[in-house]
């Protein structure tokens, strides 16, 4: 059975990995795109932070609308 504690440990591990990978990105890598249709490194990092923060706020608030509000804020 997947418990609340398992979920929290999984999230903590994901955040640890993302933070570690973020330290490997240098400013000259920010605009790199594997192909023209893909996100740049900077856009990918912004997306990952928005998705993580927005969904967690939505879970904590118990309201899907808070994700939409965060997504609109992120676009600015």
Number of alpha- plus pi-helical segments: 3
Number of strands: 0
* Mean residue pLDDT: 84
Q: Return residue spans where pLDDT drops below 50 for at least 5 consecutive residues.
A: none
Helix content: 55-70%
The N- and C-terminal alpha carbons lie at a distance of: 40 Å
Short overview:
The chain is an all-alpha fold and 76 residues long. Helix content is 70%, strand content 0%.
Structure, described:
With 76 residues, the chain is mainly alpha-helical. Helix 2 runs antiparallel to helix 3. The longest helix is centred in the first third of the chain and has 21 residues. The protein is flat. The model has no long low-confidence stretch (mean pLDDT 84).
Question: Can you tag this structure with a few keywords?
Answer:
76 residues; mainly alpha; 3 helices; single chain
Set down the secondary structure blueprint.
Elements: H1 4-24, H2 41-61, H3 65-75
Helix pairs in contact: 2-3
């Amino acid at each position: 059975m997947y418990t609340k504690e398992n979920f929290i440990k999984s999230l903590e591990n994901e955040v640890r990995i993302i933070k570690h990978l973020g330290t490997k990105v240098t400013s000259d890598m920010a605009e790199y795109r594997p192909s023209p249709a893909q996100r740049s490194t900077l856009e990918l990092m912004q997306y990952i932070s928005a998705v993580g923060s927005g969904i967690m706020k939505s879970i904590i608030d118990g309201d899907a609308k808070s994700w939409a509000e965060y997504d609109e804020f992120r676009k600015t």
